[in-house]
Fold this protein.
Amino acid sequence: MYTSQVMRVFVIIPAAGIGTRMAAGVHSAAPKQFLSVGGVPVLVRSVKAFLDVASVDAVCVAVRGTERERVEAQMQEFNLGPRVHMVEGGSNRQESVGNALTALECDDDDVVLVHDAVRPLIDSATIERTIEAVAKHGAAIVGLPALDTIKQVERTADGAIITSTIPRERVVLAQTPQGANFGLLQRAFAEAEADGFEGTDEASLLERAGVEVTVVPGSPRNFKITQPGDIELAEFYLNQTEGAR
Ligand code: C5P
């Protein structure tokens, strides 16, 4: 199925965010990746989703030093096993991923996927399709076609004024996993660092490094737990899956 017999697959899960948006709502101030969805912490669900894919060799989770003990305890409680490793997170997402990239011992052709800790409902089929797309094209992300009409705006003191309409067939909403061959991703991160560029995803770094990034279809289930109500939404999706069994 994959282009090379020796190609390995590594997954980076940045989980060092503080979750300030969620803290303002009804839930406790615990960062959202540690909240429970259906009795299992969000981060544990995200890690397990990748461990369930046989071709994944290792998962590297970036966490804050102060959270390390809590994460280690969760990993043990849910028996995640020896394929999971931990590195120190950074002060933004890109730094957290960069720290993990530095820690990985990869060959240039190995596949590296990055997945937000706070997207616990990613499914095996989408992960496998992303791995295949990276192996075939060099870089890929999961993206959701836009259903709403997309407007470009200029922010004003009163809110925003529309400056143009972007045809929605030309738009996808970037989800994760996002990945590339290790050599490409490493170069994209090095160039971003040298230029002082900070992006909110890996694709933006790859794009500016001139790498063509393909898109694998995503799903609304693979949403990012961000605001109050999102835990309930994730549990609703989970119950739907269990009800269908
Ligand atoms: O804040 P945002 O929603 O972009 O976070 C996306 C992911 O990046 C989350 O899983 C979060 O834990 C992680 N992150 C990180 N290190 C930071 C900030 C965010 O690993 N300093």
The longest helix spans residues 230-244. The chain is about 35% helix and 25% strand. Helices lie at 20-23, 42-51, 68-77, 93-103, 124-137, 182-195, 202-208, 230-244.
